[in-house]
Design a protein that fits this description.
The chain is an alpha/beta fold and 295 residues long. The protein has helices at 3-15, 18-25, 29-43, 59-82, 99-103, 105-116, 132-137, 175-181, 187-190, 202-214, 227-235, 245-249, 283-291; strands at residues 48-50, 55-57, 91-97, 120-126, 143-147, 156-164, 166-171, 183-184, 194-198, 219-224, 240-244, 257-259, 262-263, 269-276.
Length: 295
């Protein structure tokens, strides 16, 4: 079976959009459609439901997606093992991270990796860091960047890169509010405060626990996906937020934010790399992983 066709199918299974997939794969929509139809003929079943409104995987398509991921991974492993071009690694490595990570510490990591392995193409995807573990577990990404959870999922390896404090932030335009909330936290002061929090993830879990220790439930003004959106909404005066220090260090809105010196402080967390333990021996993943841990 044509590996390129499998790669096109995997991209389509991720985007569920023929037009977007054709652009990402640099082929015409008609060529993509022909390739998918040929795959369906080869396997003898329908892999995708499609109409004018949407595209979705059939049950058989979901099973075939798992096969395709393994087949492409096996092919890349064999292809690299057979190549002996001055031991130069080639291929594609998918990496998932937040927007903040992409232009902060990850910038230096990728620059160094590019210099050492110029033939490895990085496919960088950005989104909510709370999805990092799931993206790796599902096989969507080779490596992801995120915060280490309290309980690591089975089969996932983690390599720490940095630590970041978790901070309460207020709009700089409301100094009286910031002054009222700074210092030792009390239930009276925080009872009616509108909060802008992550929908999920470690920061949300630690914030919820902090409020429980006060005997309160947070008054949620908004739940958002991504720390950058929290900073934006807080800067506009919509409420108090919780974000990692690393986000503020790289935010263009930092001057419009005031950090609250709240006691007790939220527990800091480790930020690092996630990958499947069983895939750490694959050449491309091994190259990226061990560059971060040369010792």
């Amino acid at each position: 079976m044509d590996i390129r066709a499998l790669e096109h199918f995997l991209t389509l299974a991720e985007t569920l959009h023929f037009g977007r997939t054709s652009r990402l794969c640099h082929i015409s929509p008609s060529a993509l459609s022909r390739g998918i139809r040929q795959l369906e003929q080869d396997v003898g079943t329908t892999l995708l439901y499609r109409d004018n409104r949407r595209v979705s995987l059939t049950r058989e398509g979901e099973r075939f997606r798992d096969y395709a991921r393994q087949a492409v991974s096996d092919w890349n492993t064999v292809r690299l093992a057979l190549q002996d071009d001055q031991r130069v690694l080639r291929g594609e490595l998918s990496l998932y991270c937040s927007v903040t990570a992409s232009y902060s510490f990850l910038h230096d990591m990728l620059s160094s990796f590019r210099a050492n392995f110029p033939r490895i193409e990085i496919k960088l995807h950005t989104g909510d860091p709370a999805q990092a573990e799931e993206r790796v577990l599902s096989g969507t990404e080779d490596i992801a960047v995120g915060a280490r959870p309290v309980q690591m999922p089975n089969g996932i390896a983690f390599h720490p890169v940095t630590r970041s404090a978790l901070l309460f932030i207020a709009p700089a335009s409301q100094p009286q509010l910031a002054e009222r909330l700074s210092g030792k936290a009390s239930s009276n002061a925080w009872r009616e405060i509108p909060m802008i929090l992550s929908e999920e993830g470690l920061a949300r879990e630690r914030t919820d626990r902090w409020f429980r220790d006060l005997g309160l439930r947070p008054q949620i003004y908004a739940q958002v996906s991504g720390n950058e959106a929290i900073v934006s909404m807080v800067s506009l005066g919509f409420g108090i937020g919780v974000v990692p220090q690393i986000v503020l260090d790289n935010s263009p809105l930092a001057s419009r934010i005031r950090i609250l010196d709240v006691q007790p402080r939220l527990e800091a967390y480790e930020v690092g790399l996630f990958a499947l333990e069983k895939r750490l021996g694959e050449p491309l993943i091994d190259a990226f992983w061990n560059q971060q841990n040369p010792g």
